[in-house]
Amino acid sequence: MVSIFLRSLIYNIVFYLNTVVWVIFGLPTYFMPRWGIIWIAKNWGRTSIWLMTLICNTKVEYRGREKIPPGPLLVASKHQSAWETFALLQFFDQPLYILKRELLWLPFFGWYLSKAQMIGVNRGSGARALIEMARRARDEVRRGRQLIIFPEGTRTPVDAPPRYKTGVSQVYVDCGVTCIPVALNSGLFWPRRTFMRYPGTIVIEFLDPIEPGLSRDAFTERVRSVIEDATNRLVKAGREEQVRLVGFSAPSGFSSEVKSGLS
């Protein structure tokens, strides 16, 4: 456990140093087309993943990449960790995120998000914000971009009950493009609200595409079912691997007391 703690500490220091390096390296992209900052973001993500493998012995496996169709696309991903926010970038030519508007105000990092034309949402505006978000997402996707969206709206710990928002189904209906669901087990290795990073194999699995044309309710049920079933399978395998490697499975961050209160 001491070794994992030290590796995690070293990785977090190196991760932020790596981020600073790419932020500085990316300054000329302010005067370039959008592809410049996308290139920076993808390579920042790749180096962050490589460093985690090198320092923390956390490997990565990508499954189902051949299922990703070209062109405009809705990517609906499970969200357990900050890890997938940069890991998914590398698979798409024109990635697009919907994020909290406040992130756009951050010095440098937020300016890069604006340069990449990400969609900021004021969560305090309720239904009005949802309508505006859906409109902007539709327009950007129709221009050929790939919208990466997290149907639960925020990071959820491993073992937390799924709570899929209605926004993703609205975006699916409005955009009228194929959706590819994504399952993963990153929360076992990069849990939220802790700096600990655990060894093992993070798996991202691209599932069978969902073609346009379903109703909102039918899509919500379909995407929830396929993502949760695959995620549960990946989490189970990840825990078994962790036990073999270090003798225990990383804590989920979701206590039995909380489970009882939400059941």
Radius of gyration: 18 Å
Label the structural class: alpha/beta
Oligomer: single chain
* Total domain units: 1
The side-by-side strand order for the widest beta sheet comes to: 1-7-6-2-5-3-4
Helix and strand arrangement:
Elements: H1 2-25, H2 34-56, E1 58-63, E2 73-77, H3 83-87, E3 95-100, H4 109-115, E4 119-121, H5 127-142, E5 146-149, H6 167-175, E6 179-184, E7 200-206, H7 216-246, H8 256-262
Helix pairs in contact: 1-2, 5-6, 6-7
Q: Could you characterize what this model shows?
A:
The chain has one domain (58-262). The model is unreliable at 255-263 (pLDDT under 50). It is built from eight helices and seven strands, in the order ααββαβαβαβαββαα. It is globular and about 50 Å long. It has a seven-stranded mixed β-sheet with strand order 1-7-6-2-5-3-4, with helices on both faces. α1 packs antiparallel against α2 (34-56), α5 runs parallel beside α6 and α6 crosses α7 (216-246). It has helices spanning 2-25, 34-56, 83-87, 109-115, 127-142, 167-175, 216-246, 256-262, and strands at 58-63, 73-77, 95-100, 119-121, 146-149, 179-184, 200-206. The two termini are 32 Å apart. With 263 residues, it is of the alpha/beta class.
